[in-house]
Amino acid sequence: MSLISLVSVQGFILLSVQAHLPQLRPPPCNMISKEEQCVEAKGFKATIFFLALYLVALGSGCLKPNMISHGADQFRKEDPCHSKKLSTYFNTAYFSFCVGELLALTLLVWVQTRSGMDVGFGVSAGAMAVGLAILISGAFFYRNKPPQGSIFTPIARVKIIISVIPIFACTIIFNTILAQLQTFSVQQGSAMNTRLTTSFHVPPASLQAIPYVILIVLVPVYETCFVPLARKLTGTSSGITPLQRIGVGLFAVTFSMVAAAVIERKRRETYVDSGELLSIFWIGPQFLIFGVSEMFTAVGLIEFFYKQSLAGMQSFLTAMTYCSYSFGFYLSSLLVSLVNKITSSSSRHGWLSDNDLNKDRLDLFYWLLAALSLLNFLSYLFCSRWYCSSQSPSADPPPGPHGADVNHHLNFTSSKHVAADRDIL
To answer: Rounded CA gap, 133 and 127, in Å?
Structure first.
């Protein structure tokens, strides 16, 4: 992790240097103005830019899943007390991520706006360097697991991967909805009245901070209030099982799109009928509901992948959580293209083809996503039940020492949790 953190630091430093030196970037221009022609970055300038982006992406993609699994490895699964604390760790880790995201969307944006992009990227590089120093400072205190397993372990690993693919696939629609909140919902806010006071306007892009504010508030409440109460009712150390937690989030996120569709229809009708702009605060509920659903689904998915994996696979399966984000955004682009193609005709434009929300039908697109989300939740109920039944420990292990080793690896984690996971329905 230390080496890969250096990769991210180098990427941010390269971005900062390019943003600072005029000879490494195109001349500044107003991209909003139709009269001004912006110069495209080509050749060496473009190479430097994309190299920096790929370094940051490589570092982030390798660092996050390994950091989560490394922290979880510090707990001993065989200790009931540590097993209970493991769920708390996942909540705390995600809480830390949310604090970082909130700082990036508020404080860092303010720094970049006030002092320039070069300073903003420099601050990011400095923050990564401080985090790396903190990580290295605890190197002598970490519990490092020695290599373990047998020649049959790869077979068990393939079985684990195949078994979690349906659960993984059911979270893609969830991240497709996240893509809408970061794109169309921001555009939706731009078409509303952003005035907060006579001299201050709410930046539409800052709406993306709402889910993280909700998470920062609700994660401690979930851990200190909900988990102890649920633990008494269910007897599960984490209150509810990871599969149940994912299911709650997948169901709740449907209402985020329902709220978005209702508000967008209201916004459009208000503007068309009277020319007035609806207040930007009306779209707050869709971000709020998504924040609540993310607290359940995102943390539950990370915990599920870690607990159901074999020794040595925790980082790999945890990384699948972030692959779900990528697939969700790709699916979003595909859906927009398909919707435009299907709804377009010679006599009318597609739902999202005009780039003008007062002419487009973004509300119908939101209703489509709500329907897809509900269908996705129903499919998740089926997949989670199938997973629980398929992971039931075999009554008779295969004969021979190697067969027993395979059975031990296959059921080391999943057999301890599958009984509780049956309660998802």
So the answer is: 10
